[in-house]
């Protein structure tokens, strides 16, 4: 049968949500298309749940059955049953009843897909990602004022307004001299945070719509999507999405690939890369990019997460609680010692502990690192996912929760992160260049019998307060929070003993 491009045009349809496992996804898609006769089969994007990828969704008249990573034989059986007029549910992983016209993936009552919310992630896995016909664009007729009125904050390490009101950045950009430009910073060399990749693969039109809306608000005629040069598949998908929506969007972004380097995703380092600088490093501030950014122009820099939240705020402002300290939702990737990572969306009144329900931990839970590679170490996930709650707990807000089991050594884990910071910093400022080296050496000394807790904490304070780059400022966080939680383990190492039994040599 011919390949159908729209998922929302049909009340009876077979969806195959791929992403993360493209080979098995193709097998499921082929089996479904070879079996289907009258029922359309549509490839959709990732849902965020790797363990259930590829995900087969069989929908008819307001009922959907979910089959995670099914065998081709199972695909043929259930598609044949759907062809006969019934949604097969006996062997399904989950079933959901919903409005037949919903544009958001319906939540079943049980299973990983029942965890959290499907607001910004709603289209992921449900709509045809490259089909404008499955998307109702807001940038063509409404302004981004709704996002400013709810007090939306920037999201992610690559956002120039991380955890700050986006309205402040936009107003600064509008008032600055010069022609403004909007940058979507989607370059992240770390494989930990998957929220941006999930949105760009599963709901690229939401991000493109949000970019255009912000560009219209700040009177920018130009926009850029900055992606990692190593993400060739994502690059191709985005190019197709941009081309498909070009005749609809009021502002069509240019797609530019940048270096596959951790430091290159820092907002001002991204500007250096976009300008073709030989050495990619963060810029000294002030001035902020909002006043003087790309090629000296006033520049708005947000992550795909932020732009998707902007689109959501414009499309359905009533869905966001403007009275919340962190309006909207937070998209979190759960990784670490788990069978399969998962990306889940949590509301401001939720708890990070809920995210654990989406994954299977390899062993007994010991600790978590919250906030990316340079996040904070904690024993408890009973914490709201808001920026304010995470900062109060000395944790990061980059949208990553790494779960570690009892085989993990706290000293070794944070030592590896300190060494990562010493290798990946730009070298531009002394705290980032020398501080990260000193921090690594102080942790190596623990294995030689010297644990100088006060010296580590003082070094961390100086680095946080004086570093020009995020790497230098955040590098002490895993170490100091691990000392808060596991100081006896550090002291045990000075006596040559690793309580976890995993350390065999120095860092």
TrEMBL record:
Gene3D superfamilies: NADH-ubiquinone oxidoreductase 51kDa subunit, NADH-ubiquinone oxidoreductase 51kDa subunit, iron-sulphur binding domain. GO terms for molecular function: 4 iron, 4 sulfur cluster binding; metal ion binding. Residues 92-111, 276-297 are annotated as: Disordered. Residues 411-456 form the NADH-ubiquinone oxidoreductase 51kDa subunit iron-sulphur binding domain. SUPFAM superfamilies: Nqo1 FMN-binding domain-like (SSF142019), Nqo1C-terminal domain-like (SSF140490). Keywords: 4Fe-4S, Iron, Iron-sulfur, Metal-binding. PANTHER family: NADH-QUINONE OXIDOREDUCTASE SUBUNIT F. Belongs to the complex I 51 kDa subunit family. This is NADH dehydrogenase FAD-containing subunit. The lineage of its organism: Archaea, Methanobacteriati, Methanobacteriota, Stenosarchaea group, Halobacteria.
């Amino acid at each position: 049968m011919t390949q159908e491009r729209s998922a929302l045009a049909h009340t009876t349809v077979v969806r195959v949500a791929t992403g993360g496992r493209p080979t098995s996804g193709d097998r499921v898609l082929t089996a479904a298309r070879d079996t289907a006769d009258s029922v359309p089969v549509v490839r959709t994007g990732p849902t965020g749940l790797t363990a259930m990828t590829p995900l087969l969704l069989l929908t008819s008249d307001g009922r959907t059955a979910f089959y995670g990573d099914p065998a081709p034989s199972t695909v043929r059986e259930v598609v044949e049953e759907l062809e006969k007029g019934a949604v097969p549910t006996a062997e399904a992983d989950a079933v959901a009843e919903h409005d037949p016209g919903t544009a958001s993936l319906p939540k079943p009552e049980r299973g990983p897909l029942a965890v959290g919310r499907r607001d910004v992630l709603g289209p992921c896995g449900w709509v045809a990602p490259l089909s404008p016909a499955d998307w109702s664009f807001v940038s063509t007729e409404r302004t981004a004022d709704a996002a400013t009125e709810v007090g939306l904050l920037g999201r992610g390490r690559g956002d120039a307004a991380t955890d700050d009101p986006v309205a402040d950045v936009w107003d600064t950009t509008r008032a600055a001299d010069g022609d403004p430009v909007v940058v979507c910073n989607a370059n992240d060399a770390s494989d930990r945070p998957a929220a941006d990749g999930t949105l760009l693969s599963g709901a690229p039109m939401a991000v493109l719509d949000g970019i255009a809306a912000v560009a219209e608000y700040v009177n920018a005629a130009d926009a850029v999507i900055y992606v990692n040069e190593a993400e060739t598949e994502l690059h191709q998908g985005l190019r197709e999405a941009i081309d498909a929506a070009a005749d609809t969007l009021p502002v069509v972004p240019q797609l530019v690939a940048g270096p596959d380097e951790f430091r290159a995703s820092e907002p001002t380092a991204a500007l250096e890369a976009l300008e073709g600088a030989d050495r990619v490093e963060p810029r000294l501030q002030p001035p902020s990019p909002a006043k003087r950014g790309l090629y000296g122009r006033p520049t708005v820099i947000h992550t795909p997460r932020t732009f998707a939240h902007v689109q959501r705020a414009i499309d359905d402002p009533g869905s966001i609680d403007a009275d919340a300290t962190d309006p909207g939702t937070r998209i979190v990737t759960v990784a670490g010692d788990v069978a399969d990572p998962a990306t889940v969306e949590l509301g401001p009144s939720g708890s990070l502990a809920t995210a654990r329900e989406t994954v299977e931990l390899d062993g007994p839970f010991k600790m978590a690192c919250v906030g990316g590679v340079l996040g904070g170490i904690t024993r408890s996930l009973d914490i709201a996912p808001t920026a304010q709650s995470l900062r109060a707990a000395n944790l990061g807000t980059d949208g990553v929760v790494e779960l570690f089991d009892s085989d993990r050594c706290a000293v070794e884990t944070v030592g590896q992160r300190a060494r990562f910071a010493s290798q990946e910093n730009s070298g531009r400022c002394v705290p980032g260049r020398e501080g990260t080296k000193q921090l690594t050496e102080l942790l190596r000394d623990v294995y030689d019998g010297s644990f100088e807790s006060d010296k580590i904490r003082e070094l961390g304070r100086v680095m946080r307060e004086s570093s020009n780059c995020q790497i230098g400022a955040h590098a002490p966080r895993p170490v100091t929070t691990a000392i808060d939680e596991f100081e006896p383990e550090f002291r045990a190492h000075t006596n040559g003993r690793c309580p976890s039994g995993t350390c065999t040599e120095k860092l």
